[in-house]
Amino acid sequence: MPTSLDYDLSQKNKKILDFIEDATSHADEIQKNVLAEILSHNANVEYLQRHGLNGHTDSETFKKLLPIISYEDIKHDINRIANGDTSPILTSNPISNFLTSSGTSGGERKLMPATEEELERRYFLYSLLMPIFSQFVPDLEKGTLNLLITDTSVREAVMKILKLDENLANFIEFECSKNSWQGIITRLWPNTKYVDVIVTGAMSQYIPTLEYYSNGLPLVCTMYASSECYFGVNLNPLCKPCQVSYTLIPTMCYYEFLPVNRSNDPLNEKEKQELVDLVDVKLGQEYELVVTTYAGLYRYKVGDVLKVTGFKNKAPQFSFVCRKNVVLSIESDKTDEVELQNAMKNAMTHLVPFDADVAEYTSYADTTTIPGHYCLSTKSSFG
């Protein structure tokens, strides 16, 4: 029987879903406001003054004066902040912490500045996920301590009634001692509804392994995020991994897109340099993502290549294609993540007669011999 708590949760979910509907319907207007808000709030920071913006908040002046940059272009500024300089270098808000990127720059991990305000914005994107899921998977009604219950005394009281369950322990030991761990997730947790994972880009190589352990449960990619900023959510979370597409939320940052063409028909010089706004991208086109964030990144190339797969109202939806700079290159040729993955898929078919599979792989370009060649190091599994 529905309770007042169920009603409140339903109302909260509806409010968030209404927000997504409204934000995607007014993406162009919101994006203009986001840029103006960022530039107005940070009008006196050193970086914007250095480029002569002088308090302008319109997109035309912004695009004319501010260069498109990568990490190396602001590495000195970030190092100043990391070394204790508290002056407003990139943003007027104090930098509260740094997020470490998984990418590399000159052999080092990137340090991405973050502010308390930016962290709150990221938490907000997380809050969009469960209302989206509630449309596809029912919220549990019994048996769990809701995360909304944060009172320490309440949580401690519940913990006191938890005790060792010998039968459950024996059951877990029995299942884990079997020769095969196929379907181990559903064997141990039969009520599991999905597995929250990242299976786009280079992570797609782990899909067969995840399916083996999960017994065919949906592999869900919930959101698109990076250390630079959080960007969007998957509005169809139960889709197949190959169909994952993210709707970029217009309030998170100011987006621009640099057209990319990985085919044999290259873009002309004008197209290569002409960035387009969020609402102006074209269906089926690939772009490199460029962002201006509340935490002090301006026209910053994230390094991700995205492909437009559709639209939610006026907001485009993107699939992740690959990292821009993650390529193998010996001479003038370039082999990116997508091509490498396709090569591995084709190669793996030769292992079928031997009842073997590739668990994971890595690669590098070997130029110690003439001609140079690509090397793939794999970890295989049998039977």
Automatic annotation (TrEMBL):
<protein>
    <recommendedName>
        <fullName>GH3 middle domain-containing protein</fullName>
    </recommendedName>
</protein>
<dbReference type="GO" id="GO:0010279">
    <property type="term" value="F:indole-3-acetic acid amido synthetase activity"/>
</dbReference>
<feature type="domain" description="GH3 middle">
    <location>
        <begin position="246"/>
        <end position="323"/>
    </location>
</feature>
<dbReference type="GO" id="GO:0005737">
    <property type="term" value="C:cytoplasm"/>
</dbReference>
<dbReference type="InterPro" id="IPR004993">
    <property type="entry name" value="GH3"/>
</dbReference>
<keyword id="KW-0436">Ligase</keyword>
<dbReference type="Pfam" id="PF03321">
    <property type="entry name" value="GH3"/>
</dbReference>
<dbReference type="Pfam" id="PF23571">
    <property type="entry name" value="GH3_M"/>
</dbReference>
<dbReference type="InterPro" id="IPR055377">
    <property type="entry name" value="GH3_M"/>
</dbReference>
<comment type="similarity">
    <text>Belongs to the IAA-amido conjugating enzyme family.</text>
</comment>
